[in-house]
Amino acid sequence: MEKIKNEKIKNEKIKNENFTDIEKENISKNIKNISFTTVDIEMNKLIQIQNDAQNMSSRCRIGNNIVDYYTFTERLKTKGKYDVNYYEFIANLDYFKQKKFIQNMIHYYETTKNKNKTKNEYIVLKEIYNICISAINIIRPLVYMEIYSKYKPKCILDFCAGWGGALVAACALNVDTYIGIEINNKLKNGYDNMQTYLKTKSNTNINMIFDDALQVDYDKLYYDFVFTSPPYYFIQKYENNPVYSSKQEMDNLFYIPIFNKVYTSLQPNGYFIINICKEVYDNVLIKLFGEAHEVYPYKKSKRQNDYNEIIYVWKK
Protein backbone atom coordinates (compact mmCIF):
# COMPACT_ATOMS: atom_id res chain seq x y z
CA MET A 1 0.00 0.00 0.00
CA GLU A 2 2.83 2.39 0.90
CA LYS A 3 4.55 1.67 -2.41
CA ILE A 4 1.36 2.46 -4.38
CA LYS A 5 0.88 5.66 -2.37
CA ASN A 6 4.48 6.75 -3.03
CA GLU A 7 4.13 6.07 -6.78
CA LYS A 8 0.93 8.14 -6.84
CA ILE A 9 2.70 11.02 -5.13
CA LYS A 10 5.53 10.73 -7.63
CA ASN A 11 3.23 10.75 -10.66
CA GLU A 12 1.00 13.59 -9.50
CA LYS A 13 3.23 15.93 -7.55
CA ILE A 14 6.94 15.47 -8.14
CA LYS A 15 8.67 16.70 -11.27
CA ASN A 16 11.85 15.18 -12.64
CA GLU A 17 15.07 17.01 -11.91
CA ASN A 18 16.90 18.38 -14.94
CA PHE A 19 20.37 19.07 -13.56
CA THR A 20 23.26 18.49 -15.95
CA ASP A 21 26.06 16.11 -15.00
CA ILE A 22 28.29 19.09 -14.25
CA GLU A 23 25.61 20.63 -12.03
CA LYS A 24 25.21 17.36 -10.14
CA GLU A 25 28.94 17.15 -9.61
CA ASN A 26 28.99 20.73 -8.30
CA ILE A 27 26.06 19.99 -5.97
CA SER A 28 27.82 16.92 -4.59
CA LYS A 29 31.04 18.89 -4.06
CA ASN A 30 29.10 21.50 -2.12
CA ILE A 31 28.19 18.68 0.27
CA LYS A 32 31.54 16.87 0.30
CA ASN A 33 34.42 18.82 -1.15
CA ILE A 34 37.11 16.16 -0.81
CA SER A 35 40.63 16.82 -2.06
CA PHE A 36 42.85 14.22 -3.69
CA THR A 37 45.35 14.89 -0.91
CA THR A 38 42.77 13.72 1.62
CA VAL A 39 42.17 10.58 -0.46
CA ASP A 40 45.88 9.79 -0.51
CA ILE A 41 46.32 10.41 3.22
CA GLU A 42 43.41 8.12 4.08
CA MET A 43 44.61 5.36 1.76
CA ASN A 44 48.04 5.46 3.37
CA LYS A 45 46.37 5.17 6.78
CA LEU A 46 44.33 2.15 5.67
CA ILE A 47 47.51 0.49 4.42
CA GLN A 48 49.14 1.13 7.79
CA ILE A 49 46.13 -0.24 9.70
CA GLN A 50 46.23 -3.57 7.83
CA ASN A 51 44.96 -6.44 10.00
CA ASP A 52 44.37 -4.12 12.94
CA ALA A 53 41.02 -3.01 11.47
CA GLN A 54 39.14 -5.07 14.05
CA ASN A 55 40.46 -2.81 16.79
CA MET A 56 39.24 0.38 15.16
CA SER A 57 36.19 2.12 16.59
CA SER A 58 32.86 1.70 14.80
CA ARG A 59 32.85 5.50 14.61
CA CYS A 60 36.14 5.60 12.69
CA ARG A 61 35.60 6.89 9.15
CA ILE A 62 39.08 6.47 7.70
CA GLY A 63 38.68 5.42 4.07
CA ASN A 64 35.18 6.80 3.57
CA ASN A 65 36.51 9.86 1.78
CA ILE A 66 38.18 7.62 -0.80
CA VAL A 67 34.83 6.05 -1.66
CA ASP A 68 33.04 9.41 -1.68
CA TYR A 69 35.67 11.07 -3.85
CA TYR A 70 34.95 8.65 -6.68
CA THR A 71 31.26 7.70 -6.33
CA PHE A 72 29.38 10.21 -4.14
CA THR A 73 27.89 12.14 -7.07
CA GLU A 74 26.29 8.93 -8.37
CA ARG A 75 25.20 7.85 -4.89
CA LEU A 76 22.97 10.90 -4.65
CA LYS A 77 20.88 9.41 -7.48
CA THR A 78 19.68 6.62 -5.18
CA LYS A 79 15.94 6.86 -4.54
CA GLY A 80 14.51 6.59 -1.05
CA LYS A 81 11.08 7.29 0.44
CA TYR A 82 8.58 8.95 -1.93
CA ASP A 83 10.63 7.40 -4.75
CA VAL A 84 12.88 10.47 -4.93
CA ASN A 85 16.64 10.91 -4.89
CA TYR A 86 18.50 13.88 -3.42
CA TYR A 87 18.60 15.79 -6.70
CA GLU A 88 14.85 15.38 -7.11
CA PHE A 89 14.34 16.41 -3.50
CA ILE A 90 16.05 19.77 -3.97
CA ALA A 91 14.40 20.27 -7.37
CA ASN A 92 11.02 19.78 -5.69
CA LEU A 93 11.82 21.57 -2.46
CA ASP A 94 8.76 23.83 -2.63
CA TYR A 95 6.55 20.75 -2.72
CA PHE A 96 8.37 19.02 0.15
CA LYS A 97 8.26 22.18 2.26
CA GLN A 98 4.50 21.67 2.38
CA LYS A 99 5.05 18.58 4.52
CA LYS A 100 4.93 19.42 8.20
CA PHE A 101 7.87 17.24 9.23
CA ILE A 102 10.06 18.84 6.55
CA GLN A 103 8.95 22.29 7.70
CA ASN A 104 9.86 21.37 11.27
CA MET A 105 13.31 20.15 10.27
CA ILE A 106 14.05 23.26 8.22
CA HIS A 107 12.93 25.44 11.13
CA TYR A 108 15.09 23.43 13.54
CA TYR A 109 18.18 23.95 11.39
CA GLU A 110 17.46 27.65 10.89
CA THR A 111 16.87 28.39 14.56
CA THR A 112 19.07 25.86 16.34
CA LYS A 113 21.36 23.40 14.60
CA ASN A 114 22.64 25.76 11.89
CA LYS A 115 21.71 29.15 13.31
CA ASN A 116 25.30 30.34 12.90
CA LYS A 117 25.24 29.35 9.19
CA THR A 118 28.29 27.11 9.43
CA LYS A 119 26.75 24.69 6.93
CA ASN A 120 25.73 25.65 3.40
CA GLU A 121 22.23 25.02 2.06
CA TYR A 122 23.15 21.80 0.22
CA ILE A 123 24.62 20.25 3.37
CA VAL A 124 21.58 21.22 5.44
CA LEU A 125 19.19 19.79 2.85
CA LYS A 126 21.24 16.60 2.62
CA GLU A 127 21.01 16.13 6.38
CA ILE A 128 17.26 16.76 6.25
CA TYR A 129 17.00 14.30 3.34
CA ASN A 130 18.94 11.73 5.41
CA ILE A 131 16.56 12.08 8.33
CA CYS A 132 13.27 12.31 6.48
CA ILE A 133 13.80 10.25 3.32
CA SER A 134 16.95 8.14 3.06
CA ALA A 135 20.53 8.21 4.36
CA ILE A 136 22.09 6.29 1.42
CA ASN A 137 24.85 4.82 3.57
CA ILE A 138 28.00 3.07 2.44
CA ILE A 139 29.79 0.13 4.02
CA ARG A 140 33.01 1.53 5.45
CA PRO A 141 36.24 0.12 3.98
CA LEU A 142 37.29 -0.70 7.56
CA VAL A 143 34.34 -3.12 7.88
CA TYR A 144 35.51 -4.97 4.78
CA MET A 145 39.10 -4.93 6.03
CA GLU A 146 38.06 -6.49 9.33
CA ILE A 147 36.29 -9.37 7.55
CA TYR A 148 39.08 -9.86 5.01
CA SER A 149 41.69 -9.90 7.77
CA LYS A 150 39.81 -12.59 9.67
CA TYR A 151 39.37 -15.02 6.76
CA LYS A 152 42.48 -14.26 4.65
CA PRO A 153 40.92 -14.63 1.16
CA LYS A 154 43.01 -15.06 -1.97
CA CYS A 155 40.29 -14.05 -4.42
CA ILE A 156 37.25 -12.02 -3.35
CA LEU A 157 33.95 -12.00 -5.23
CA ASP A 158 31.68 -9.05 -4.53
CA PHE A 159 28.63 -9.52 -6.76
CA CYS A 160 26.93 -6.28 -5.65
CA ALA A 161 29.96 -4.01 -5.65
CA GLY A 162 28.07 -0.79 -4.96
CA TRP A 163 30.06 2.32 -4.11
CA GLY A 164 33.58 0.86 -3.92
CA GLY A 165 34.39 0.30 -0.25
CA ALA A 166 35.12 -3.38 -0.80
CA LEU A 167 37.61 -2.63 -3.56
CA VAL A 168 39.39 0.00 -1.47
CA ALA A 169 39.69 -2.47 1.41
CA ALA A 170 41.02 -5.28 -0.79
CA CYS A 171 43.69 -2.98 -2.20
CA ALA A 172 44.63 -1.64 1.23
CA LEU A 173 45.30 -5.24 2.33
CA ASN A 174 46.92 -6.17 -0.99
CA VAL A 175 44.57 -9.14 -1.44
CA ASP A 176 45.60 -11.15 -4.51
CA THR A 177 42.42 -10.60 -6.56
CA TYR A 178 39.18 -8.65 -6.26
CA ILE A 179 36.25 -9.38 -8.60
CA GLY A 180 33.48 -6.81 -8.44
CA ILE A 181 30.17 -7.09 -10.25
CA GLU A 182 27.93 -4.03 -10.54
CA ILE A 183 24.73 -3.56 -12.52
CA ASN A 184 24.89 0.24 -12.40
CA ASN A 185 27.09 1.12 -15.37
CA LYS A 186 26.83 4.82 -14.43
CA LEU A 187 29.46 3.97 -11.81
CA LYS A 188 31.97 2.76 -14.41
CA ASN A 189 33.75 6.09 -14.83
CA GLY A 190 34.14 6.49 -11.07
CA TYR A 191 35.46 2.94 -10.73
CA ASP A 192 37.86 3.42 -13.65
CA ASN A 193 39.34 6.46 -11.93
CA MET A 194 39.41 4.68 -8.58
CA GLN A 195 41.24 1.71 -10.08
CA THR A 196 43.81 3.96 -11.74
CA TYR A 197 44.62 5.43 -8.35
CA LEU A 198 44.51 2.19 -6.36
CA LYS A 199 46.93 0.52 -8.75
CA THR A 200 49.55 3.05 -7.63
CA LYS A 201 49.10 1.81 -4.06
CA SER A 202 48.48 -1.92 -4.39
CA ASN A 203 49.32 -5.04 -6.36
CA THR A 204 45.78 -6.37 -6.10
CA ASN A 205 44.50 -7.72 -9.42
CA ILE A 206 41.20 -5.92 -10.06
CA ASN A 207 38.45 -7.35 -12.27
CA MET A 208 35.39 -5.09 -12.43
CA ILE A 209 32.43 -6.46 -14.37
CA PHE A 210 29.57 -4.10 -15.18
CA ASP A 211 26.67 -6.43 -15.76
CA ASP A 212 23.57 -7.91 -14.14
CA ALA A 213 24.92 -10.32 -11.50
CA LEU A 214 22.24 -12.83 -12.51
CA GLN A 215 23.67 -13.01 -16.05
CA VAL A 216 27.29 -13.67 -15.09
CA ASP A 217 28.75 -17.16 -15.66
CA TYR A 218 30.35 -17.83 -12.27
CA ASP A 219 31.84 -21.14 -13.42
CA LYS A 220 34.31 -19.05 -15.42
CA LEU A 221 35.46 -17.18 -12.33
CA TYR A 222 37.78 -18.47 -9.63
CA TYR A 223 37.02 -17.22 -6.13
CA ASP A 224 37.48 -18.65 -2.64
CA PHE A 225 35.60 -15.91 -0.81
CA VAL A 226 32.31 -14.08 -1.22
CA PHE A 227 31.37 -10.98 0.74
CA THR A 228 28.71 -8.55 -0.40
CA SER A 229 25.71 -6.51 0.70
CA PRO A 230 22.81 -6.98 -1.74
CA PRO A 231 19.92 -4.52 -2.08
CA TYR A 232 17.30 -4.86 0.66
CA TYR A 233 13.54 -5.13 0.34
CA PHE A 234 12.24 -1.73 -0.84
CA ILE A 235 14.64 0.29 1.32
CA GLN A 236 16.35 2.16 -1.52
CA LYS A 237 16.22 2.07 -5.31
CA TYR A 238 19.57 2.05 -7.04
CA GLU A 239 20.27 3.13 -10.61
CA ASN A 240 19.58 0.37 -13.19
CA ASN A 241 18.32 -2.09 -10.57
CA PRO A 242 15.06 -3.90 -11.41
CA VAL A 243 11.93 -3.06 -9.43
CA TYR A 244 10.07 -5.92 -7.78
CA SER A 245 6.36 -5.87 -6.97
CA SER A 246 6.65 -7.82 -3.72
CA LYS A 247 9.16 -9.35 -1.32
CA GLN A 248 8.25 -12.82 -2.58
CA GLU A 249 8.94 -11.77 -6.16
CA MET A 250 12.32 -10.38 -5.11
CA ASP A 251 13.06 -13.67 -3.31
CA ASN A 252 12.17 -15.75 -6.36
CA LEU A 253 13.70 -13.57 -9.07
CA PHE A 254 16.77 -12.21 -7.31
CA TYR A 255 17.83 -13.58 -3.93
CA ILE A 256 17.29 -17.31 -4.51
CA PRO A 257 18.89 -17.52 -7.98
CA ILE A 258 21.83 -15.22 -7.23
CA PHE A 259 22.72 -16.88 -3.92
CA ASN A 260 22.53 -20.33 -5.53
CA LYS A 261 24.62 -19.35 -8.57
CA VAL A 262 27.36 -17.72 -6.53
CA TYR A 263 27.53 -20.42 -3.86
CA THR A 264 27.63 -23.26 -6.40
CA SER A 265 30.79 -21.90 -8.06
CA LEU A 266 32.53 -20.99 -4.81
CA GLN A 267 35.71 -23.03 -4.26
CA PRO A 268 35.53 -25.89 -1.71
CA ASN A 269 36.29 -24.66 1.84
CA GLY A 270 35.59 -21.11 0.64
CA TYR A 271 33.56 -18.61 2.65
CA PHE A 272 30.16 -17.28 1.64
CA ILE A 273 29.41 -14.09 3.59
CA ILE A 274 26.36 -11.88 3.19
CA ASN A 275 25.54 -8.60 4.92
CA ILE A 276 21.74 -8.49 4.97
CA CYS A 277 18.71 -7.96 7.21
CA LYS A 278 17.38 -10.84 9.29
CA GLU A 279 14.20 -10.98 7.21
CA VAL A 280 16.11 -12.02 4.08
CA TYR A 281 18.12 -14.49 6.17
CA ASP A 282 14.92 -16.08 7.49
CA ASN A 283 13.04 -16.00 4.18
CA VAL A 284 15.83 -17.16 1.89
CA LEU A 285 19.32 -17.86 3.18
CA ILE A 286 18.53 -20.25 6.00
CA LYS A 287 16.31 -22.27 3.64
CA LEU A 288 19.08 -22.53 1.06
CA PHE A 289 22.14 -23.17 3.24
CA GLY A 290 20.91 -23.88 6.75
CA GLU A 291 21.83 -21.80 9.77
CA ALA A 292 24.86 -19.59 9.34
CA HIS A 293 28.07 -20.98 10.81
CA GLU A 294 28.96 -17.57 12.21
CA VAL A 295 26.93 -14.41 12.77
CA TYR A 296 28.17 -10.87 13.45
CA PRO A 297 26.28 -7.67 14.14
CA TYR A 298 27.35 -5.09 11.60
CA LYS A 299 29.21 -2.29 13.39
CA LYS A 300 27.40 0.77 12.09
CA SER A 301 24.49 3.05 12.77
CA LYS A 302 21.09 1.70 11.73
CA ARG A 303 19.85 2.51 8.23
CA GLN A 304 16.25 3.16 9.12
CA ASN A 305 14.71 2.95 12.58
CA ASP A 306 15.05 -0.66 13.79
CA TYR A 307 16.24 -2.03 10.44
CA ASN A 308 19.19 -4.06 11.67
CA GLU A 309 21.97 -5.37 9.46
CA ILE A 310 23.82 -8.58 10.21
CA ILE A 311 26.76 -10.40 8.64
CA TYR A 312 26.09 -14.09 8.04
CA VAL A 313 28.92 -16.56 7.30
CA TRP A 314 28.89 -20.04 5.80
CA LYS A 315 31.93 -22.19 5.05
CA LYS A 316 31.40 -24.40 2.00
The CATH homologous superfamily of the largest domain corresponds to Vaccinia Virus protein VP39
Which band does the percent of strand residues land in? 5-15%
Architecture of the largest domain, according to CATH?
Answer: 3-Layer(aba) Sandwich
Helix count equals 13
How helical, in percent, are the residues? 40-55%
Instruction: Write down the overall mean pLDDT.
Output: 90
Global outline: globular
Largest sheet, strands/sense/barrel: 7 strands, mixed
Low-confidence stretches: 1-11, 301-307
Number of strands: 7
Mind explaining what this structure looks like?
The structure is a single chain. The chain has 316 residues and is of the alpha/beta class. The chain has two domains: 2-132, no CATH class; 141-315, Rossmann fold (3-Layer(aba) Sandwich). It is built from 13 helices and seven strands. It has a seven-stranded mixed sheet, with helices on both faces. Strand 2, helix 11 (188-198) and strand 3 (205-210) form a beta-alpha-beta unit. The chain starts with a helix and ends with a strand. The model is unreliable at 1-11 and 301-307 (pLDDT under 50).
